[in-house]
UniProtKB/TrEMBL annotation, chains A, B:
InterPro entries the record matches: Aminotrans_IV, Aminotrans_IV_CS, Aminotransferase-like, B_amino_transII, BCAT-like_C, BCAT-like_N, BCAT_family
Family of this protein: Belongs to the class-IV pyridoxal-phosphate-dependent aminotransferase family.
Class in the EC hierarchy, top level: transferase
Cofactor(s) listed in the protein's UniProt record: pyridoxal 5'-phosphate
Keywords recorded for this protein, A-Z: Amino-acid biosynthesis, Aminotransferase, Branched-chain amino acid biosynthesis, Pyridoxal phosphate, Transferase
Coiled-coil boundaries: none
MF term (GO), any: L-leucine-2-oxoglutarate transaminase activity
Name the UniProt record assigns to this protein: Branched-chain-amino-acid aminotransferase
Lineage: Bacteria, Bacillati, Bacillota, Clostridia, Eubacteriales
GO biological process: isoleucine biosynthetic process; L-leucine biosynthetic process; L-valine biosynthetic process
Taxonomic superkingdom: Bacteria
Length: 353, 353
């Protein structure tokens, strides 16, 4: 794919690396490619970062036909730039696209587009401890038409945001509210796709949990309302004795790439990982019996979030004395060190660009 | 509310009234109002219809925090302009907004905004048989921020589209596929809200049904996959003997305004309407016993869509010889005649402007 590059004449002032906020600052350029029925994906280009002009009838505003991804680029101590699991993100973008009736992209082209844009804006990759360049590829439906159908035109775009450590004081345990009123997703729905509707559907529970003093919600399955599914927009793991439990991917759960990284690392350390459904009652029972050693969530933004407290139906339990668990910490250290080049990439997760 | 009006200097050529397509043409003006946290909704204005300028990080592109409504304006034979059930649409917009964590609007302001915009573009209201001016109010989240939270800024907009009769040859029965693989919504989710995510989630089933030769799908409940819920984006009714069955509103079903109009009209005709859950098996059983006289869907776009055939797990049944049922026709005639002023508005559904 030949990508046309138009450089900005007005580069922005870069934010201070030590006070970066997640998702607020964007770099000097963006990648755009168009899709038109018949013509396919075409006109890949890097342009100065700037606003989109869209007709108010544009379908994405009305029917949310949209998908996205999230990944990060890092600058190693030797100055190399590396992407973490870009191939997996490109593959997942296409899984989301298929579910949402959006034409799939050539996955090599997606990686090339990311690499090209990151290289153009490489001076924006922050170097301070815990920082990285967050990469947001996304697709939106652009037909100017008010009626429910799959759009015949789309934009695929990539924007970049220098981000700080998700938790400024390093990773620290969060308090989670077990949601038993609202439902995020069910089998047969769109829960496994990275599409706006899932996130919009989750806002109310997040807001209500926030008012009660919790950082996030733990989602139960939408059918029986008892099986543990996700935490906020992250996957969830429990350490019970020396075994790790995590819910299996069964259509309603996002196939987290950090989830997969955690599973592969844990297994490489000879720790048993059991991908089986378990109930919230079971989780509380593990705690009652003193077997629940760690609970943590995995996601691109925070990598590993230890869960220090869980509230369910007026019962609140404290996990691991509200301290970071040993495995949570080990996973966090290993993943971030592979990401920034301080640890060997023995799983071939890195794309050097 | 004081609405600032800026008129276009370049009015567009109006499309031919007799070949209008649904949702393709838009009028000369649009309504916009901004929301900013702290300041609330402000700066209501009518402007020349034109593109929005939005940062690529705008939240609606990523997290689908968006709501919309659909209603119609009609010109009566005497030249009056009337809106159909505008108050109910304004109320439902707020129900959707609440579920999606979008600040609610003053419902009187919404009606005033619609009335003002329709009056500015009143020459666009088509007069041919079966035509109307479709009104699309919608709200989108506009924070330039890549992170999952409720936005702190929004746009409320209204656009107008002159539309033809949904079915060019009058109402004619459609073939429907009973969907048993994909799920649209479950209790605890967002199914009752008019928000993009529900429509995006429905596309795949619609596309697959289309490939099999069906116009739309009939959705079953997402929990037991047996109760009848909706047809496409419409509510569904069955006439069994002289009784009418329709699924009750239990969180996963959109509270259709045409649904409510149909129920109120039927009851005013002394026809029993039973809002109770029924299974797809029950529906096929009614057919087997020769009791299923009519099945029809209700929605703003088509008003009444008779269903002529239903396919479920390799069984296809033909309903009422694939002809329009007597009650379907009577409802269609009554609702459209109230809408265009040819029948008395005994339910106070009309807002004259």
């Amino acid at each position: 794919m030949e990508i046309r590059i138009t450089r900005t004449r007005n580069p922005k002032k870069k934010p201070d690396e030590n006070s970066l906020v997640f998702g607020h600052d964007f770099t000097d350029h963006m990648f755009i490619m168009n899709y038109t029925q018949g013509e396919g994906w075409h006109d890949p280009r890097v342009e100065p970062y700037g606003p989109l002009q869209l007709d108010p009838s544009t379908m994405v505003f009305h029917y949310a036909q949209e998908t996205f991804e999230g990944l990060k680029a890092y600058k190693t101590d030797s100055g190399d730039i590396q992407l973490f699991r870009a191939k997996d993100n490109a593959a997942r973008l296409n899984q989301s696209n298929e579910r949402m009736c959006i034409p799939t992209l050539d996955e090599e082209d997606v990686i090339q587009a990311i690499a090209t844009l990151v290289k153009v804006d490489q001076d924006w990759i922050p170097k301070a401890e815990g920082t990285s360049l967050y990469i947001r590829p996304f697709v939106i439906a652009t037909d100017p038409f008010v009626g429910v159908k799959a759009s015949s035109t789309y934009l695929f775009m990539i924007i970049l945001s220098p981000v700080g450590a998700y938790y400024k004081e390093g990773i620290s345990p969060v308090k989670i509210y077990v949601e038993d009123k609202y439902v995020r997703a069910v089998p047969g729905g769109i829960g496994f796709a990275k599409t706006g509707g899932n996130y919009a559907a989750s806002l109310m529970a997040q807001v209500e949990a926030g008012k009660k003093g919790y950082s996030q919600v733990l989602w139960l399955d939408g059918i029986e309302r008892k099986y543990v599914e996700e935490v906020g927009t992250s996957n969830v793991f429990c350490r019970v004795g020396n075994k790790i439990y995590t819910p299996p991917l069964q259509g309603s759960i996002l196939s987290g790439i950090t989830r997969d990284s955690a599973i592969k690392l844990l297994r490489s350390w000879d720790i048993e990982v059991i991908e089986e459904r378990f109930t919230i009652e079971q989780l509380f029972e593990w705690h009652r019996k003193g077997e629940l050693q760690e609970v943590f969530a995995t996601g691109t933004a925070a990598v590993i979030s230890p869960i220090g407290a869980l509230s369910w139906q007026d019962n609140e339990i404290t996990i691991n004395n509200n301290e970071i668990g040993q495995l949570s910490q080990r996973l966090y250290n290993s993943i971030t060190k592979i990401q920034n080049g301080q640890l060997e990439d023995s799983f071939s997760w890195i794309t050097s660009i």
